[in-house]
Write a structure and sequence with these properties.
- By secondary structure, this protein is α+β, with helices and mostly antiparallel strands.
- The chain contains six helices and three strands.
- Strands 1-3-2 form a three-stranded antiparallel beta sheet.
Length: 155
């Protein structure tokens, strides 16, 4: 899978999962995002178990995530955000452009309910208020990501 040995794949997804927990949103290829989604869902499930005092959940979170900041954020912030939700913690949205070089499709994988959604809407409103500085490409990219998010939420 992905043309890598299983140890390389494990370390790749371990690093990507840590970055996803820290930043709550990352850009990557579609194939990697679909594989990462399972890891990201399991991290939240184990983080929720660790907040209930189950040691196996804590051990699994510590085994997968590489930094202390990511471990704390998963167990304290993300587990609290998704405490009433059983699944579908992540969202994968397609982006219009493809990666340069190999033309691979690029997507955004993110945890639902993050702060970037509010930030993007605020940035979009500021761009519309000051039309002299509107970047057409940036505005189009925002519109497409917002449309993809809305389509994913209504599925």
């Amino acid at each position: 899978v992905l043309g890598r040995h299983y140890k390389q794949r494990w370390h790749l997804f371990r690093t990507m999962a840590t970055q996803l927990v820290q930043h709550e949103r990352i850009y990557t290829t579609q194939a990697k995002a679909l594989m990462l989604r399972g890891y990201a869902e399991r991290i939240i499930k184990h983080a929720k178990r660790s907040t209930q005092g189950i040691n196996a959940g804590t051990n699994e979170v510590n085994r997968v995530l590489t930094t202390d900041l990511a471990r704390k954020k998963a167990t304290l912030e993300l587990a609290a955000r998704f405490k009433d939700q059983r699944c579908n913690f992540t969202r994968v949205s397609k982006v219009k452009y493809r990666r340069r070089g190999d033309n691979a499709p690029v997507v955004i994988i993110e945890y639902r309910g993050n702060e970037y959604e509010k930030y993007e809407r605020q940035k979009h409103d500021e761009l519309l208020k000051n039309p002299k500085h509107v970047d057409v490409v940036q505005l189009a990219t925002y519109a497409e990501t917002l449309e993809a998010k809305l389509l994913n939420e209504h599925r």
